Amino acid sequence: MLTNLQAQPEDKIMALMAMYRADPRDNKIDLGVGVYKNAQGVTPVMRAIKAAEQQLWEAEQTKAYTGLAGDPAYGRALSGLVLGNAVEAERLALAAQPGGTGAIHQAAELIKAANPDATVWLSAPTWPNHPAILRHVGLAMGEYRYFDNDTRGVDFDGMMDDLKGAKAGDVVLLHGCCHNPTGANLTLPQWSELIALMQDSGLVPMIDIAYQGFGDGLDEDAAATRLVASAMPEVLIAASCSKNFGIYRERTGLLMAISEKADQTALTQQNLSSLNRLNFSFPPDHGARLVTMILEDDALRADWMAELEEVRLGMLGLREQLATELRARTGSDRFGFIAEHRGMFSRLGATPEQVAKMREDHGIYMVGDSRLNIAGLNRTTVPILAQAIAETGV
Ligand code: LMR
Question: Which atom of ligand 1 is closest in space to residue 34's alpha carbon?
């Protein structure tokens, strides 16, 4: 039986991680997978997570199952962080998921169950696991223009033009903030225009929000998601705690499904619980419990927010430093966009050959589309990267 298996397409981010690990050079620099590293090159456990883990270790009495949709307190706490007061609780169905990826997968299955004829529209480019999951679930896909290679900003006119081709009931997959892989984001007035188009065309937004707190701040990064959630009848939202709580391996995510009317919510919720049961039964609890403890406790929450803010400001500082170094080394302003982009990533605009050359000559690892993990840099590696970019003639 197993001999019938076909080789599966490799995820390019995972493949790059393996290449980096296999490189024996001491001075190699990992700007591939989206993981934050501090100035010492370490991905630390956040202080509030450590404190919550200690409290949990002392107080936890049981490891018995929670609910199929996870602990309701987690759903309330995390949906509160993402949505604020944008939506009445009665319209919200919530299900804990193994990471943001789990939430994306479950959203895809929910779409498939509710409207198998829907086309899901993806930004060009998007996170490579988006199309991979949608293909795996068997949903049709369309693509809308998003990144303008010349300006390194959003091609908003192209995006709107392409979405005019979507039919009623189609789903538009959007990045709530900190677009991955480009770092280029819509302005709030552009989000409002997009909402009007989705309303007029009967489209359903699905928002992937995996970097809340990494761009302009916790509330600022959620503003677009809240705007969409308050304006559209139905919305799917996949949230991840991997980055903003630094609990990557704990697999902590949440799927939120907003129904038009409160009397639909119970059926939506029952479907979410059923999908969890079919896919993995009960969702992982450890990370979700820590997140709940932090969000519900004033002191822990304040400390978490303070540390997240340090991380965010650190990334902004690195963006500024890189843009300045590149200006000095290339004598041009063409990399100014790096300081304008937000989140972990920026797309540099290098060719695949230039990306390979920087890897071979300088041990600098970035994804083949020239996505750069800003959070993988530090004050010392920024000038090395800038020099490599300049030497490679990007
Ligand atoms: C990334 O884009 O690097 C992160 O979201 C990690 C992943 O799972 O790909």
Answer: 3
Tell me the CA distances in angstroms from 224 to 83, 99, 182, 221, 377, one per residue in order: 10, 21, 17, 7, 28
Can you list the positions of beta strands (E) in 183-339? Answer: 204-209, 235-240, 253-258
Asked whether residue 268 falls in the same domain as residue 379, the answer is no
Within-domain flag for 1 = no
- Give the Å distance between the CA of 284 and the centre of ligand 1: 19
**Domains: count for the chain:** 2
- Please report whether residue 56 resides in a domain: no
Structural domain for 369, as ranges: 11-44+310-392
Q: Report whether residue 33 contacts ligand 1, using a CB cutoff of 6 Å.
A: yes
The residue written with tokens 């490799």 in the block is: 10
Tell me: do 319 and 291 sit in the same domain: no
* Per-residue pLDDT reduced to its tens digit, 84-142: 999 999 999 999 999 999 999 999 999 999 999 999 999 999 999 999 999 999 999 99
Q: Using one digit for the tens of pLDDT, what is the confidence trace for 258-317?
A: 999 999 999 999 999 999 999 999 999 999 999 999 999 999 999 999 999 999 999 999
